[in-house]
Amino acid sequence: MRFLKLLMRNKRNLLGLTIMLLGVILGVWLGFWVMFVGGIVQVVNTLKGNVSGLKIAFGIIKIFGAGIFGLIAGVVPIGIGWKILK
Questions:
Q1: Domain coordinates of the chain in residue numbers?
Q2: Count of CB atoms within 10 A of residue 44's CB?
Q3: Chain-wide mean pLDDT for the chain?
Q4: If we measure between CA atoms, which residue out of 21, 6, 8 comes closest to residue 82?
């Protein structure tokens, strides 16, 4: 309860923490769901239907690049939120 009162007293802290929380959510969503799961679904759907080497390659690139894209999408808002807090 005391923590919430302290946060509400200083709106800048609240904004910084909100941006950091959204950064974590964005990083997990983009890295895991869009890139990792989306890449697996793309490869499986390509193998079920019309087999195209380019579609399979892009699906594999999405799977391997999921960590990097998730990290970038999470670190940038966290860095911005950290700067606002300071």
A1: 30-86
A2: 12
A3: 88
A4: 21
Query: How high is the pLDDT of residue 36?
Result: 93
C-alpha triplet 54, 52, 71: angle, nearest 5°: 40
Quote the CA–CA distance of 69 and 31 in Å, as a whole number: 6
Tokens in use for 39? 């890449």
Please state, in angstroms and rounded to a whole number, the distance separating the CA atoms of residues 76 and 1.
30
Q: What is the mean pLDDT of residues 54-75?
A: 91
Both tokens assigned to 61:
């690139």
- What's at 76, amino acid-wise? V
Length of the chain: 86
